[in-house]
Amino acid sequence: MIDRDLAARLVVAAHRRVRDHREELSRLDSVAGDGDHGVNMATALAEAARRAEQGDHSTPADVMRAAGSAFHETVGGAAGALFGSFFGALAGQLSRSEEPDARQLVAGLEKGLARVARVGKSEPGHKTMIDALAPAVRAARESLDRGDDLEFVMATAARAARRGARATAAMRPSAGRARFAPDHSLGTEDPGANTVALVLESWAEQLSSEVRV
Ligand code: ADP
Ligand code: MG
User: Between the CA of residue 43 and those of 6, 76, 176, 183, what are the distances in Å?
Assistant: First the structure.
């Protein structure tokens, strides 16, 4: 079960992880983009974590919705709007249930992926965050359908996201700023795909640490 406090801990975990990789994310973005991705994501997630910890949200959906708003309000870049849309769609799905569990979370990830693809007009293979998110969501769905629990589902999703992010190194970008210099980024992973992997890894680790206590 995902309650309000767990949702807040997931947002805080995501912030810590992305903050710790801020320089690396900006370095990836500097190869074919403008080098601001790490700062963009760390800034938005710092605000998302601040809002989550404020405690004036009563449901997990409220926490995720506030995180989405933090992305929209603090970051001007493409990824701000796209991650904001992702968290917003996830919140929308979680709000349909009083006590969301792994099923609602996976459905929320699917809604998030669909929203990002629609807003960004991007598909797998365009060398974007979609190339980590799409395989992660597919793996999460398969894991859930096999009967795995929340912790296992998220660990499976995180591994698929990381594999997806690694695979972007071999792609030429056809979306976002990087598409203007398609050859520059050959051999370098997409920054947004890395952020997706970091966020899902932080969620998987948070969930596994909770189960053991
Ligand atoms: P900006 O490109 O505006 O500087 P960021 O540097 O924060 O924004 O984010 C760049 C990341 O955003 C890319 O690595 C990519 O993953 C993602 N991105 C950009 N445009 C799109 C798009 N149209 N669809 C999906 N993801 C995108
Ligand atoms: Mg950038």
Answer: 21, 11, 20, 29
Spatial separation of the C-alpha atoms in residues 103 and 170, rounded to whole Å: 33
Closest protein CA for atom 12 of ligand 1: 79
**Which pLDDT tens digit goes with each residue over 8-51?**
999 999 999 999 999 999 999 999 889 999 999 999 999 999 99
**Which ligand 1 atom sits nearest the alpha carbon of residue 196?**
16
pLDDT tens digits for range 153-170: 999 999 999 999 999 999
| Centroid of ligand 2 to alpha carbon of 27 (angstroms) | 10
Given the CA of residue 29, which atom of ligand 1 is nearest to it?
Answer: 6
Side chain identity at residue 102, one-letter code: A
What domains lie within the chain, and their CATH numbers?
Answer: 4-212 (1.25.40.340)
* Gap between the Cα atoms of 126 and 197, Å rounded: 17
Report the predicted TM-score, pTM, of the whole model to 2 decimal places: 0.97
Q: How confident is the model at residue 206 (pLDDT cuts 50, 70, 90)?
A: very high
